[in-house]
Amino acid sequence: MAPRSGYTLPVFACAAALAALKHLQRSGGDPPITQVSLPLIDPPETATIAIEQVAQLQPQVALAITRSDPGDNLDLTRHTPIWAQVELNPLGQTATIVIQGGEGIGHHQSSGAAAIYRYARHLLQQTLAEQLAAGDRLRVTLILPEGQALAQRTSNAAFGVVEGLSLLGTSGLSQPLSSPEQLTQFQQDLEQKAQQYRSLVFCVGENGLDLAKTLGIPPEQTLKTANWLGPLLVAAALNGVQEILLFGYHGKLIKLAGGIFHTHHHVADGRLEILTAHAGALGLPPGMLPQLLNSGTVEAALALVRSRSQGDPIDWATQLYDSLAQRIDDQAQGYMAKHVTTSGDRRLPVVGCLLFDRQRQIIVTSPQGQKILQPWLPS
């Protein structure tokens, strides 16, 4: 059976807002709202979304609740409730539609702006505007009750988004990570870029692509991999790429040091175990090892090692991450050697890595990573 696609969070947020607005506009004899249909815009098709609950809170205010369904995608937001509160003709509002983030919607630490991105805003604006009478105004507050808790399991804070999840996405469809179609798309992108460039930069997600750009890495030489790092390393080797820079958040790429080449947390984790094993092998004080293993997150473990390094003659944090970076390079090289036969003129790509933390600060660049990165750095 083919994997089932679902919808991205912006679609469910828009559906809840549409249901709440329709509830305010309904007459007494209308049936209860149990579902709404809305155009996805991208792709150009219509989605029908079930509505769990809808209620009028005040004469001009209503709240509707739906629940995320990303299909067979391995998504931590599966079944999470999404609320939308809408207020019709709020006092003093001049804009036709105002969209704001409530509880559980992350915000940008630098500006305080809600992490509601272009596709989500466009979908909401277009869908809701079609339902308004001339002169009407609407205020929409989006709420993810579980957003703050779920955000702790993401790398959002690495990209400046705190206290909740982002309404992120460039399309309404959520394609399954296990879908061969997604991997095929990435492989086709790689094949095209391999014909033009000898060096490519692998970024797991959109945020990593943005951060790579700020360092001066040309976007045309970056490749989105999602969690398909293993198959794409092999594809790079088969297509003659000579250098690969693995560029990413340390909480993702550390998995490669343990031989995990599909990095989604539903497939395998082991990050703290990998970090602790390296710490023990390097000779970190034995009393620290249980603390590292029980840190809860790799970010907390990194903070612990950095704290221990202060005032100690040995910079344990630098030694640990130098070791991990080299291990990532070696494991990636070994993975390609295992799956790609070299003969004739075919040579395996050289692999380097760059790891950054939640504050978007580079923790370590492996020696090979520094060589690959050098041509893009300011002279």
Automatic annotation (TrEMBL):
UniProt key word Repressor: no
Pathway in which this enzyme or protein is active: Cofactor biosynthesis; adenosylcobalamin biosynthesis; cob(II)yrinate a,c-diamide from sirohydrochlorin (anaerobic route): step 6/10
Keyword Manganese: no
Molecular functions per Gene Ontology: cobalt-precorrin-5B C1-methyltransferase activity
E.C. no: 2.1.1.195
Alphabetically ordered keywords of this record: Cobalamin biosynthesis, Methyltransferase, S-adenosyl-L-methionine, Transferase
Reaction it catalyzes: Co-precorrin-5B + S-adenosyl-L-methionine = Co-precorrin-6A + S-adenosyl-L-homocysteine
UniProt cross-references to PANTHER family, sorted A to Z: COBALT-PRECORRIN-5B C(1)-METHYLTRANSFERASE (PTHR35863)
Name of the protein this chain belongs to: Cobalt-precorrin-5B C(1)-methyltransferase
